[in-house]
Amino acid sequence: MICENITIGANGHLHFAGQDTVALAKQYGTPLYLLDEDYIRHQCRVYQNAFKKHFGPTSRPLYASKANSFKRIYEIMKEEGMGIDVVSSGEIYTALQAGYDLSHAYFHSNNKTDRDIVYGMDNHIGYFVADNVEEIKAIEAEAGRRGIKQKVLLRLTPGIDPHTYEAIATGKVDSKFGSAIETGQAEEITVFTLAQPHVELMGFHCHVGSQVFGEDIFERAAVIMLEFIAAMKEKHGYMARQLDLGGGYGVRYVESDPFLDVDTKVSQVAAAIQAACKRLNIEMPEIHMEPGRSIVGAAGMTLYTCGTVKKIPGYKNYVSIDGGMPDNPRYALYKANYTCLLANKMNEKCDFEASVVGRCCESGDIIQEHVMLPASVGRGDTVAVCTTGAYNYSMASNYNRLPRPATVMLSGGKSYVAIRRETFEDLCACDL
Ligand SMILES: *Cc1c(COP(=O)(O)O)cnc(C)c1O
Fold it and tell me: Is there an atom of ligand 1 within 6 Å of 305 CB?
């Protein structure tokens, strides 16, 4: 199986985090998001241990909360001692509802509104990661009004193509994110920021992309960033205290995806950083990274109930489910890969090829094409889609007025609702 928390029970049912998914579908209804809490905590610890071991005691993994943002996840991050990154006032609000201490929060986004900046400062957010000079001006103005000194990092684009999907590649020079080193804009914003009385430049940030497996992407990004840091030290006498290398480690969606060992990856990045610092004759800054997908992705699974099975002889077959692009838009967005399983018939031979499709009025409402399922698949069966913990709930919509599914957490053989299922009343809650 693609992840160790996916197994087959003695009854031929798909088990997730040791629990019978068919029983969970019956108990909580479908569509249903499952999240393996123990796996999430395990991943947090893997990152923290690797960071302590290879980057030193001051380094910190920050959970990129856009991957899956809701109250309970911030409680878990708080309990696990994780920093967080947020990209909107809504994520800040959610973290605050969970009692999360924002001094370890980093506020990203390529366009923070004036209201975002006010909201962040009202709530004493630890750091703003400024994308461009305009943002530094806005942050300086608001910090000046308050008579405070706001800590900031600058987001730079190192000019690296991580060979992932175009839509989730973010480190190239022509990206909408950050200030490019290559064009001289990174130096300009650094000099400008250092001259502002109400911002304190803590260091630099980059994020090259997502679902990255590439051999040395993070090493190359780190070296480019360290060369920039050394150049700023030499030219402007400014030594960065923090270097944040962003998120992006990939997870296994299908058998052909590689297995990524976080400790090994982090040790390789650390070795590249140490070598570069030595060569450039600079101290090693505090290193941060921002994993999102690799913390929660494989902790997730979505359960659906099968409806219509349509066979078009000589063409193709469709297996329709009771959810679709509103709860998982990733295939529609960028043809993302997923593994689909027939949860109540795990021991049957899979020799029926079909497209697993949603129930929306949209031909692009597809979960996955070319799925192999048992030929007996039919109405009432439970379809499971694996590895849906990241960028599913957080990207979900109410398209076709479908209520968003519940999120049920699985831990130590028990289950509990962390996000209740939306009701029809919720759908009209804002309609006046
Ligand atoms: C999306 C994002 C992340 C997380 O990426 P993952 O691929 O989920 O690990 C981290 N940092 C920034 C700035 C991001 O935009």
Answer: no
